[in-house]
Design goal:
This protein is α+β, with helices and mostly antiparallel strands. It has 3 helices and 4 strands. The chain has helices at 9-93, 96-106, 159-171; strands at residues 111-121, 147-156, 175-187, 204-214.
Length: 220
């Protein structure tokens, strides 16, 4: 017996289209649900990571501060070692007693020292003529023997007294390149000010700063 289908073809096609559309809606709904779940998980992971970063920010700041202080201490240690090496080299090279005795001889009663400092100036070999074209840079601290510089600050009774001190130092066998760096008049109102030749306290004086180099003869 043969079955007779009374449904028209357009009805069957419409049902097939509706079924296909429902399957597509279901697939899109499932995909959308997966995307929502994935977005929620991602946002939760981002929130956790942000919270961890915020919690670690003080530690990062503290670590940066410690690193900065460590670098600063290392640089200070390097500077102190260089200063110590310079002082040791200067102590080995300078006959301090002889230099002080020479200064006592050239400074008369019209001059009073406020401070005296001895420093070592590193000098690079060949620095006077300057670097040649194409020549490598020269480290001013490498393979050189520094000059010994003396810096004197004090008060003179008058300009002739300061000039006499400069002349005596230039004539000395211990000093060279004697230069008057600072010179200015002062009112000597301090009761401990310099005493003039006649025993009276002068009204004015001369503050000075003299710099010079120590000759090779004054070094050990």
């Amino acid at each position: 017996m043969k079955d007779i289908d009374f449904l028209p073809e357009w009805y069957k096609e419409t049902r097939r289209c509706q079924s296909s559309v429902r399957r597509q809606y279901l697939a899109l709904g499932g995909l959308f649900l997966v995307m929502v779940v994935w977005n929620a998980l991602a946002m939760r992971s981002i929130s956790l990571a942000s919270a961890e970063l915020a919690a670690a920010e003080p530690q990062r700041t503290e670590a940066e501060r410690v690193c900065y202080e460590f670098d600063h201490l290392v640089q200070q240690l390097i500077d102190r070692r260089q200063e110590l090496a310079g002082h040791q080299d200067m102590e080995c090279r300078v006959d301090v007693a002889s230099v002080l005795a020479e200064l006592s001889a050239v400074i008369d009663d019209r001059v009073a020292l406020e401070s005296l400092s001895v420093v070592s100036e590193p000098v690079a070999a060949g620095s006077a003529s300057g670097p040649r074209s194409g020549a490598p840079a020269v480290d001013p601290l490498a393979g050189t023997r520094g000059r010994i510089q003396i810096v004197m600050k004090g008060l003179a009774q008058d300009p002739p007294a300061a000039a006499a001190l400069l002349k005596a130092m230039e004539a000395s066998a211990y000093f060279t390149h004697v230069t008057l760096v600072v010179s200015r008049d002062l009112d000597l109102t301090d009761p401990q000010a310099l005493t003039a030749a006649d025993g009276e306290t002068p009204g004015h004086g001369l503050a000075f700063e003299i710099r010079c180099l120590l000759r090779e003869g004054g070094e050990n």
